[in-house]
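Annex B, item 7. Sequence and structure tokens for protein A, then protein B.
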Amino acid sequence: MLCSIAPASSSSRARAEPPWPLVDSCGGAPVPNAPALVDGATELLTCRVKGFYPFPESEGGGGLARWLFRDTHQAVAVRSRRRSPVACESSSLLMDFMTRGGAAHPVWWSEPVQWHVLLGGGIDGEVRLRASGSALPAGSKLAAVRDFAAAYDERPLSLYSGNCRVFCARVRREVARLNNADLSRPARQAAEAAADARLALSLLHAGALPALYPAVALALCWEGLLGGGGS
């Protein structure tokens, strides 16, 4: 179920609001390194990925834990600037891929479910979305991004191949595809190849990073067994 991101209760929900503002008008502060609209293009998408603390505030822990996990969860903000002969409009979508129901999902408190996920199993996930700025016109690139997110909502969430970072990487690839459609054929082919390479690297990183946690745990257990056997 595609749901809207709403302010979360500090005691019962994972934090839903990433700590950066969305730009709502063409006159607002630009996204860093965002290209300007080019002649012949009526709409340009820019994309920003930001990490934030993923756990319910009631499980927040302090200092060191919050710092270590500060970028564990990722969301993606996609901004559209549309130019017409009479106006310049801007809209934004803020999206992430999270456990269905947020902190109410059993994965946050059920050890069997946690082991299921740790061993590579899938659970129910949902795309959370918040729109701001001008209304999305039918047929716009940003509307296509929203449709992409709605279709992604049917996928299971898994720790290694279907986590929030994978979602962000695939949204960035979709944004690149939509922007590249305005390019000439040779330029589009080169841009698509570069986008595919970035996606491959992002997916590798998205799967390898969570694998470090069980790998480190296994290494520590193995070291303990070796140490115990030698005593």
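Protein B:
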Amino acid sequence: MAQIRKMDCQLTIKSSADKFYDVFRTKAQLTPKMSNGLVADIKLLQGDWNSVGAVRLWSYDFEGKSHMVKEMLESVDDENKTMVYKLVEGELLNYYKSWRTILSITPAGAGSLVKWTMEFEKQDENIPDPVKNADYLIALAGNIDAYLLKA
């Protein structure tokens, strides 16, 4: 019987928690500019950019190939700087029955701690854990941090 699994990855960054959270909370459409090539494009398909229920189409490069994923902003907790995204379409669903990504940012000294939690249910037990996806999310956070530090 399949079960929901979790995988966490985290990165300490130099940007403030407020500044980094604001990128994902209110400026998602700017991530292609900030990602240093990891995100090619993002389009709003439903709702508005900042509301729960918004559906966005991300075009991104992963392992040297172009991919697209459609996600819905499932919940937001501004006080705790946490956002939950649910995958509704995309290649990942060929391997996973369900996929949610939780982004949490907490202050840590002069910077912050960015934590990504992936919740997923594999299509079958032969599907590997999404370690490369975790690496991608860490690289994305690092690139956005570098951009914010230069701005």
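Comment on protein B: The longest strand covers residues 65-77.
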